[in-house]
Amino acid sequence: MPEKQDYSQGELFTQELDNGQYKPYIRSNPFFTRIRGYEKMLLLVMGLVLLSIVSFSLGVEKGKRSALLSKRGIEPASYTIQVGAFKNRQLALRQAQILAKKGLAPLAFAKGSYIILCVGKFSNQESAQPLLNELQRTYAGCRIRRL
Asked: Domain spanning 79-146: which superfamily?
């Protein structure tokens, strides 16, 4: 005959309200609210340092590229011939159309309250000199300038 036990044995499957399903723990506070103030500042400083390193390295690569081009003798177009400066935009566009009909490549850009009208892109001043002599017959005040 089995002896009577003084404790009750729990059943393997109980009929409780949670019925054994897994309920994930949901955090009530997001990541950045748990970080202290000085830690946020450190993360910000580290991000700025990383951004400055990346921008510096991109600038170095650009400098290497331009040095490589100048070693090969290929210089970027850094000179142009300024034909005139106009206050009236319509006059500048009309002159640009006239230059385009002559087969030249006009370039118009704003500088302050003036529209600067230029022709061509040249790597040095010597290569722009023949076109300058030709344009000075029509446009008296034209000159060579940097882009």
From this structure: Sporulation related repeat (3.30.70.1070)
